Amino acid sequence: MKILVGVKRVVDYAVKIRIMPDRSGVFTEGVQHSMNPFDEIALEEAVKLKEKKLATEVVAFSLGGPKSAEVLRTALAKGADKAIHVQVSDAEAGKLESFHVAKTLQKIVEQEKFDAVFLGKQAIDDDSSQTAPILAGLLDWPQALYASKVEDGGSGHMKVTREIDGGLDTVKVKVPFVLSADLRLNEPRYATLPNIMKAKKKPLKNIPITELGIDISPQTQTIEVTEPPVRQAGGFVEDVSALVAKLKEKGFVKA
Amino acid sequence: MRRVFSTQAIQTAIEKSLPDFEKVAGSSAVRTQESVRRQFARDESHFISPPPAVVLEPTNVEQVSKFMKICNDRGIPVVPFGTGTGLEGGSMSTLGGVCISTQQIIGEPQLREQDFVCSVKPSTTRIALNDAIKHSGLFFPVDPGADASVCGMVATSASGTNAIRYGTMKENVINLEVVLADGTILDTKGKGRCPRFAPFQLRFTKTCRKSSAGFNFTELFVGSEGTLGVITQATVKVHPRPQFFSAAVCAFSSVHQAASTVVEILQWSIPVARIELLDTVQVQASNAYSNLSLREAPTLFIEFHGSSEKEVADQTAAVEDICKSHEALDFDSGASPDKMANLWKARHNAYYAALALRKGARGFTTDVCVPISKLADVISETRADLDEHEILGTVVGHVGDGNFHVILPTIEEDKTEHRKIQSFSDRLVRRALAADGTCTGEHGIGLGKRKYLREELGENTIRLMHTVKKALDPKNILNPGKVLPEL
């Protein structure tokens, strides 16, 4: 099984997000970035399958600006064999949507003949959670989303346990398939220095988006980005009657 | 040299200074509400203290400096407060003065990968530091139980379970930015200039790892527990993450055999990464708590790090031989993450397992360290002491360093029991001192252990401590009443 793993370069989860004064988006200049945590989990699962001899090759993929190459190098250090960087400009990267990513993944899958695509369930910057299902639709492949366990299903199938609102749902999917990784699927390994050094020699193919003939014009327009309203200070009241009076005054209780 | 602080004088001075504090950092950084002050009234120790009169929340080192100048001019005591996870009362405002909370001094860790160093602000805890650098293949190894702030760990000279291979804070600090009592800002190893402007930071400090230049001030502040200066930035060493791991667990017929095994392992210079001892009572507790079925005997938990599978396998095999030559009862080992997690389960949950022995108990933990050659005797005598006085306690030790903790699940409200435990702790410290050890391996002196310092260090060293303290803090405003015993 050849697995393609999508990884996205996002603002690191620990960073305190700041909104631009013109409300067009968040500050990303000079801010710490890293691999989307759910993509780390997807990558770890693919590498684990390779170690269990259920997969033969793991290829990391990213659609993004020039700095996405850093995240791909990290993926190589964590066990991917090769990497594919479909490159756009920084300005274009800021406007990419799940649909574009899915179309690009579809092109790569069709060109390079993968048996599975592993993605994180959502990116922590846009929380779209759409790329995996859109891709499954475009490829007409079965999908196993919010995976929390992956096992060999025998005779060309994989058995995937999924976390859903009601509990756990176990499905059997025919290979080739699309998977999205949820939090409890595994605990990603750390990249060690020797592996980081080894990764520098692993192949990283750079493909400008124009070569793939995919239209990345945005389908949505961001009107404004604002912070949630600041929490107002509460007030103390002396006793119950004062509390009731205040509740009536504020219209929470019929006067 | 002791300055007598009167509560009234402090209160008056603080009230007068509130507008000056507000001018330095804004009114939102000056917290006088009781509910806020109470949050800074205790740490993880068992001491009770009044809350500070005011909590100041500076956001940068210049504000800390200005606060210190005001307090120094007016003789107001100041206690720095990090994450409040100290175990000896070091960050409690026992004189009710000013508490400077360092946690609003924010900044992202500055990693210099090729130099294997990283600079952090006080708001960075050790887990946050490791999170920030996890992509680099490097890690910060000192791992005390709590997720403490790294600068706070410098102040208490903290340590963790892998000190035997990676060292304690003393071995892992390169440079410190410190604010002295009179507001002077300095870098113990000197300040370098930042080559280009970058937002949110930056006083780049000197980060070369070796230098013979000047006095060793960096280590002077390590372990000073807020009595010599306020640490506002620490540059620490980071290490390459190990590639390969292995773990082993081995039960022995007696603590003596276990401790002798440790001595021999070290003499064969096997570079173990962690070597921990759980005594029989702790193993029983862990079995009950984590549903395990370990043999109820003194047990060693060992972890190996290496750069190849063969290296860790060789280390494990060598240690197995040594254990067997000391009448090991069982020896189990493994290298897969699952097996290792399983093997170490008892050790990881030790603290909570001990507390679970007694419903409603809080943990009182002792902390002595002795030369390894004396370890077996001291632990055996301690266990005998616990049994003789019918005190419930378990022994968990970083035996590779000669350091062990007795975990005593205690009901806080029971005054008789509290006195019994205090006496036990006192006997334990004196036993350790008699064995050429120290009254505190990792936790610090704080409030409770000042009375042992004279016996441990000797009169001349105590005098020297006072000389240094007087030079750096002549008015004794920095964390008065801590660490230094009276002259």
Can you describe this structure?
The complex is a heterodimer of chains A (255) and B (487). Chain A is of the alpha/beta class and 255 residues long. Chain A is built from 7 helices and 11 strands. The radius of gyration of chain A is 22 Å and the shape is globular. Chain B has 17 helices and 19 strands. The longest helix of chain B has 20 residues, at 415-434. In chain B, strand 5 and strand 6 form a beta hairpin. Chain B starts with 6 loop residues before the first helix and ends in a 15-residue tail after the last helix. Chain B has helices at residues 7-25, 34-39, 61-74, 126-132, 150-156, 163-166, 217-221, 255-267, 280-290, 309-324, 337-343, 345-348, 350-355, 372-388, 415-434, 450-457, 459-472, and strands at 30-31, 54-56, 78-81, 98-101, 110-112, 117-120, 138-139, 173-179, 185-187, 230-237, 239-240, 244-252, 274-278, 299-306, 328-334, 362-365, 368-369, 394-398, 403-410. Chain B is globular and about 70 Å long. Chain B: It holds the Pfam family FAD-oxidase_C. Chain B: Its main location: mitochondrion. Chain B: It is found in: Mitochondrion.
What is the topological layout?
The complex is a heterodimer of chains A (255) and B (487).
Chain A: E1 2-6, E2 9-11, E3 33-35, H1 37-51, E4 57-64, H2 68-77, E5 82-87, H3 90-93, H4 98-112, E6 116-120, H5 131-139, E7 143-154, E8 157-164, E9 167-174, E10 177-181, H6 193-199, E11 204-208, H7 240-249
Chain B: H1 7-25, E1 30-31, H2 34-39, E2 54-56, H3 61-74, E3 78-81, E4 98-101, E5 110-112, E6 117-120, H4 126-132, E7 138-139, H5 150-156, H6 163-166, E8 173-179, E9 185-187, H7 217-221, E10 230-237, E11 239-240, E12 244-252, H8 255-267, E13 274-278, H9 280-290, E14 299-306, H10 309-324, E15 328-334, H11 337-343, H12 345-348, H13 350-355, E16 362-365, E17 368-369, H14 372-388, E18 394-398, E19 403-410, H15 415-434, H16 450-457, H17 459-472
Parallel strand pairs in B: 2-4, 3-4
Antiparallel strand pairs in B: 1-2, 5-6, 6-10, 7-11, 8-9, 8-10, 12-14, 12-15, 13-14, 13-18, 16-19, 17-19, 18-19
Subcellular location (chain A): Mitochondrion matrix
Family (chain A): Belongs to the ETF beta-subunit/FixA family.
Domain Electron transfer flavoprotein alpha/beta-subunit N-terminal (chain A): 23-216
